[in-house]
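note to self — DONT lose this again. spent like an hour looking for the file last time. sequence + predicted structure for the chain T wanted, 133 res
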Amino acid sequence: MKIEAFLLCDAATDAMGKLNVLGAFDRIFLKQVPGVYQGATVAMRVRFDRSEVGTHHFEIRFIDQDGRDIIKALNGQVDVNFGSDAHSGAMNFILHIVRVQFAYFGEYQLDLRFNNEIRASLPLTVHPVPKDR
């Protein structure tokens, strides 16, 4: 399997297999901490080859610097199957995350696991809103 896209963004849609992404980011700004970020979307595009037909389990963990979950892990499974004429197939995944509470300014991370193996990670930095805004 190949992770073709793993993004934290403002919004995403899947239009007949085409992944549309709006506003990918790796930092946010909060007025204070603890503070709540109202919403974000995790957009993924994963390519599977013929040898990977079958069921695959995935998990996304959103963790702080100490490896503690800041939201409950997002778990699911996907059944991979595609036509006999294709050597590979891509699947899009769109997950909405709402009202994430951040305890401090600093570094956080999203980890993507497939079949209990980390396949991709995204950093996210939480900054204070600049004083001039």
